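The records we work with from here on pair a chain with its fold. These numbers are not coordinates but entries in a learned vocabulary of local backbone shapes. To see the layout at work, look at the sequence and tokens printed below:
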Amino acid sequence: MNKLFVRRFAIAISLAVVFGLLCVYLASGSNPGIWWTPAMRSILFNRFLIWIIITAVWVHTIHPVLGFRARPFLRWFVFGAIISVDLAIGVFVGNVPNAMFIFWATIIAWAVYGMIIDIVATKFAWEWTAILGKK
């Protein structure tokens, strides 16, 4: 197995777990009973999804339509936000105080977390084009 792939894999999963637990901790401020509940598992699963996509799926560094180089901070700010929408919508189920704030905070936080994960993974394990030997 390619060493850079394994390094990118390890970096992305480690940071996704750390940020996932940070997200659960921050959510426990307004919902102390979140630990070991379906909501916690949902948050961690959503972070697992970000980790999988950052590690194994994103091989394109050139925007497919516009043709510019999609740098890690740009592509994962966008993908982190998109992937977090399903989790963020969950705050509208039930009677959650400040639901709109939590909705936007979730999307923005995971856009930033996804961006950090991809920047760090790219810094220490290179772009996918380098891993796959493409120019």
Observations:
- Residues 3-131 form one domain.
